[in-house]
Amino acid sequence: MHINMKYYIVTIGAIFIALGIGMLVGFNLNYDQELSKQQAAIIDDLDAKFEDIKTTNDELEGKLDKKESEYKKIVNYLNENYLVLIKDQLQGKNVGIISTTENYDYTQDISKTITDANGSVAYDIILKSGLTNKDKIKELNSALQLQLKTEKDVVNYIMSCLKEENAMDKLQQLEKLEMIKINYLSDNYLDCSQVVMASGDTNESSDKFTNIDKTIIDKLKEDGKYVIGTQKSDVKFSDLENYKKDKIPTINNSQQGTGKLSLVYALRDSVEKGNFGIGDKVDSIIPFK
């Protein structure tokens, strides 16, 4: 039988193609096996690292829980024993108290903290909403022959009165007009060198800090007085961030034992800066030397 040359060529070509395909398939199979081994090794390595991270994380969580438990014990100890810790710490200190709102008065508590630490209260005055009333300002001007126009003027007048010997006579006129409330004014109020600003409010007021709180702070600083701002931890509207901007030390939990400690220690050492109390925006729970 005669076999055509084309048949040989096609046959040989088919053989080579088949060999090529076989070699390619074999190579790919081998490559896939190597790739699978590499992937498996990477996964094993990741698993090992994940286990290491999980172990480290568990250890850190355990340490954090222990520290948090220790922290709570310290806070509870301070809250329960603050009276012992503040005893006689304010001896010789004569401290004034000014509350900038009648809606949120806790000055009696501040006064008690000061006296519990054997300090004395120079004055305890609450500024009332009538202080901003234009008609009441006119009545005050008429009664005392003054020329006050705004609440800033009234605040400055109050601060000036506290530097004079006849303060009670003048301040009583403001009290009659329900612009202020005088809880206490000692005989030696002129010796006051430190002032606690009782801040916070139940109502929001955009200009209260600028027109009232800051006016008082600026006046006290001008007179060389030490100033500290306080509030209770359950306050609805806070001005402490503004106090911080004005570089005034602050306490955000004055009703708690640690807050009372902070107040006494800050007054005792005239702490120049720091935000004390509870939460994320504080420097420490109490002032430390």
UniProtKB/TrEMBL annotation:
Spell out the coiled coil positions from the record.
43-77
Show the stretches that span the lipid bilayer.
7-29
Q: Name one Pfam family in it.
A: MctB
**Which keywords label this protein?**
Coiled coil, Membrane, Transmembrane, Transmembrane helix
- On the tree of life, the source organism's domain of life is Bacteria
The question of whether Metal-binding is a record keyword is answered with: no
- The answer to keyword Nucleotide-binding applying to this record is no
A biological process (GO) annotation for this entry?
Answer: copper ion homeostasis
Annotated GO CC locations? membrane
State the name under which the record lists this protein: Copper transporter
